[in-house]
Amino acid sequence: MTVLDPAAIDAELAARRLGWERGDNELVKVVRRRNFAEALAFVNAVGALAEEANHHPDIDIRWNTVTLRLSTHSAGGVTAADLNLAASIDELDAGAPEGS
Fold first, then answer.
1. 3-state class of 10 per DSSP?
2. What whole-number distance in Å separates Cα of residue 13 and Cα of residue 87?
3. What is the full DSSP assignment across 51-71?
4. pLDDT tens across 3-24, in order?
């Protein structure tokens, strides 16, 4: 897989209207839910997407806050696989009930 340069990543994030930030060699998204149970349900849904894509984010969960980090570790940075999974996670997040 080809690692994308920062300009290409920024262009893709903007073109796809993805709700992610570009970090050091990774994409980062912070999602908040009303409580731990809803945050955990979101993590489980992300896990299902990751399994389907065979591409897995690093996930940190702190009560109602979930931080997701996407990077293709084997390639050493952000690739198209990360952007594609980011788009799927954004769709999942957009489908969350109001107030979540």
1. helix
2. 9
3. HHHT---EEEEETTEEEEEE-
4. 999 999 999 999 999 999 999 8
Distance CA 27, CA 29 (A): 7
Alpha-carbon distance of 20 to 14, in angstroms, equals 10
Place of tokens 């970090």: 23
| Amino acid occupying residue 18 | L
pTM: 0.92
Instruction: Count other C-beta atoms under 10 Å from residue 39's C-beta.
Output: 20
Going from the N-terminus, what domains does the chain have, and what CATH number goes with each?
6-94 (3.30.1360.20)
C-alpha–C-alpha distance, residues 100 and 86, integer Å: 19
